[in-house]
Design brief:
Layout (H helix, E strand, L loop, with lengths): L5 H17 L2 H17 L3 H17 L9 H8 L10 H17 L4 H15 L2 H13 L9 H14 L3 H7 L1 H4 L17 H6 L3 H15 L6 H13 L3 H16 L4 H18 L3 E2 L17 E2 H23 L3 H16 L9
Antiparallel strand pairs: 1-2
Helix pairs in contact: 1-2, 2-3, 4-5, 5-6, 6-7, 8-9, 13-14, 13-15, 14-15, 15-16, 15-17, 16-17
Length: 353
């Protein structure tokens, strides 16, 4: 479970402001270097981005005074930039190249560079680049700039499942299930990866136990938005639409304004499936004002209206990302999600009014 909390992040922000007010630049520098991790692990990549810009500027102005290499922080930022759809593709690729040059100047980072390039290619849906950098990443040696073993194995497991190798993936998942691989976010974000593969393998009892084990812990997180979406997809596919609606209601308002637009897309794509499966039902559902959906005299909203809203959000994000990236990967992800509902979401769901 993460040791980073929103309260701790806000407390660190106050300390930074105090250091700035006193003109204590050295303390402000140290605090900001720590703050990047607080921001990322509490779902605020935008704060981490601004903070890193400040650190780089200070280091450039006075490299002798600020001799920290900032390589870990630079790596984290380089792997976050693409979640902001307004950041141009050229700027993202320049940031990755800048990190690569800086890492190579310290004779480290071969594995980290390959992983970032693989993830950037995956984000764009560039199959050739993905295959190239995935193999390069797996072959590269580990060093002090490499992600922890649990994080690396989590990324590897996700790719195995994405390639459709469900049975192989569940064998590879054993160390996560038995607590042998764990870190700040693992296995909290890893266990939801297994839910749909288990359903496809006909192991629904195992999927149910896994969901029950992980959901209470995940509910307390603010940054594992993609995992929220995976839980929502699972509930929809098994027909537990009451729980799916509760999950959607719990997260929708916060996620509508979450700065990580990539993960926001994953959640609203999952919500599309929930509302599609609900058909013409009317729901007791508290929605964000931004939805523009008005509750009827019966205190309910129409599922088709909610579907139209979440579909618009998902497709708008897909268009923004695809236009920036020059691909159609995000719209293809919507098509794959619909196919998943056709494959595994048959039959009537259960929901209480």
């Amino acid at each position: 479970m993460s040791t980073h909390t929103l309260a701790k992040m806000q407390a660190k922000e106050s300390k930074i402001q105090e250091a700035d007010t006193r003109g204590d630049v050295d303390r402000a520098f140290r605090l900001r270097a720590e703050f990047i991790y607080d921001a990322l692990f509490t779902g605020h990549p935008e704060k981490a981005l601004v903070t890193f810009g400040w650190l780089r500027a200070k280091k450039k102005d006075d490299p002798a005074r600020f001799d920290d290499d900032l390589l870990w922080e630079q790596k984290l930022i380089a792997a976050q930039l693409w979640v902001f759809p307004h950041v141009p593709r050229a700027k993202i690729e320049a940031a990755i190249a800048d990190f690569e040059a800086e890492a190579r100047s310290h004779a480290v980072g071969e594995r980290s560079i390959a992983k970032i390039r693989f993830l950037w290619a995956k984000h764009r849906g560039d199959e050739a680049e993905m295959a190239k950098w995935y193999e390069t990443w797996l072959r590269a040696r580990r060093d002090w700039l490499t992600d922890c073993l649990a994080c690396d194995k989590d990324t590897e497991l996700e790719e195995i499942f994405d390639r459709g190798h469900d049975a192989v993936g569940m064998v590879q998942a054993k160390p996560f299930l038995e607590g042998e691989l764990a870190c700040e976010e693992v296995p909290l974000r890893t266990l939801p990866l297994m839910l749909v593969p288990l359903l496809r393998l006909g192991r629904s009892d195992e999927a149910a136990a896994l969901y029950k084990r992980n959901e209470p812990k995940l509910r307390r997180s603010r940054n594992l938005i993609r995992a929220f979406g995976r839980h929502l997809t699972y509930l929809t596919l098994i027909g537990n639409l009451k729980a799916a609606c509760a999950s959607f209601e719990r997260h929708a308002e916060f996620l509508l304004t979450a700065y990580d637009a990539d993960e926001r897309f994953s959640f609203f794509t999952a919500a599309r499936l929930t509302m599609k499966r609900l058909g013409d039902e009317r729901l007791r559902l508290k929605l964000p004002e931004a939805s523009g959906i008005v509750t009827g005299a019966d205190g309910k909203v129409a599922a088709p209206e909610v579907y139209a809203w979440v579909d618009t959000v998902a497709r708008s994000l897909a268009t923004t990302f695809d236009e920036r990236n020059g691909t159609g990967a995000y719209h293809r992800a919507i098509v794959r999600a619909d196919a998943l509902l056709d494959e595994l979401g048959g039959g009537a769901g259960t929901r209480e009014s």
